[in-house]
Amino acid sequence: MAKYQIAWMPGDGIGNDVMEAAKIVLDSMKFDATYVPCDIGWDLWCKEGNALPERTIKALEGTTCGLFGAITSKPQDEAREELIPELRGKGLVYFSPIVKLRQMFNLHTNMRPCKSYPGNPLSYRGTHLANPPVGGKVSDVAIDQVIFRENTEGMYGGVEFFPLPEAVYTALCANPKMKPWKDKGLENVALSTRIMSKQGCVSICRNAFAFAAKTGRERVTLIEKPNVLRETGGLMTRCFREVAKSYPAIRADEANIDAICMWMFKNPQDYSVLVAENMFGDIVSDLCAGLVGGLGFAPSANLGDNYAVFEPTHGSAPKYAGQYKVNPHAMLLTVKMMFDWLGETDKATRLEAAVARVIREGTVKTYDMGGKASTLDVAKEVARYAG
Ligand code: IPM
Ligand code: MG
Predict the structure, then answer these.
(1) Residue 291: count of CB within 10 angstroms of its CB
(2) How does the average pLDDT of the chain come out, rounded?
(3) Ligand nearest to the CA of 156
(4) Measured in angstroms, how far is the CA atom of residue 64 from the centroid of ligand 1?
(5) Atom of ligand 1 nearest to the CA of 300
(6) Whose CA is nearest to atom 12 of ligand 1?
(7) pLDDT tens figures, 246-259
(8) 219, pLDDT greater than 70
(9) Counting Cβ atoms within 10 Å, is residue 96 exposed (0-12), middle (13-18) or buried (19+)?
(10) Atom 10 of ligand 1 has which residue's CA nearest to it?
(11) pLDDT tier, 307 (very low <50, low <70, confident <90, very high otherwise)
(12) Nearest CA to ligand 1 atom 1
């Protein structure tokens, strides 16, 4: 039996393309694993009314961890229209299978590194600034950030209502601030909640600080909006400050979500570890990915206490599906994160070095980097150096 059982979840669209690329590299590195194919994604919703079938959950339970490509998600109305006729009108509700998976397996921590690799023509250069950092030359701005996104709570908790049930409405009316919606009629009001727990806030902050301490990073920045979101933002801020006390050597500072979007654009090199609740983490991780060349370079890990699912931050990009056009580096760096989690440190180091080398050499690159190579060409080049 192989050392590891990996749940293999290409999902939708380019998820298949990049997972094929991952397989090339895994095989070349002689990774000792059995890959367990698992159904997940849009097709399953359309044909079975469930994007994350029970059989997949069962299969995942027997694996070491999961590797995931990408998922297509659509709003409720569109989702219902794409169901096969037999399943329509049955009140089926679409939910994002990756969000469900994170919650079901309590993958509470979403870790998303964004690093500029020298030679990447798409990396942030700061040339738009009056005083560009370090002369504003290509690759001069070294960005090395890691986002810790709380992965199971907040606006992603799925506690939502439309129309508003009477009981919920009545309970909300205990708050005088409900006044503006009182006369609008229940059928005209939609509600999404942002529920956060002290346990969730403390856990994500602890993981961010522990990572900073372990890797010698000097700064951890909380991203919130406590001046407006007083209760949830306030709770997260208090937890952050409490956890920070145990790490006196690390600079702990706080930024509002709107302000960080501006500062990140001006001085991205100043940030190191970022910590945020679910939705702000989602937003900021795309922003940070943009600074290091786009979603083609942004890996991520959904980490629980004993299980993890690794997925690139990017989506399924349906218009490129099956064309082997997209950049596989995000997926390959995701595999690197999986190696790290498994304790396969040597493989992790070799793989990252190989990705960095292919980027630096700049001869085999996908269209986004100005090249003509296919997804699989890039994977083969990385495999040549990593294998
Ligand atoms: C991400 C994605 C997902 C999210 C979507 C596909 C549900 O944007 O992983 O960042 O919002 O978490
Ligand atoms: Mg996202």
Answers:
(1) 24
(2) 95
(3) 1
(4) 23
(5) 9
(6) 282
(7) 999 999 999 999 99
(8) yes
(9) middle
(10) 282
(11) very high
(12) 313
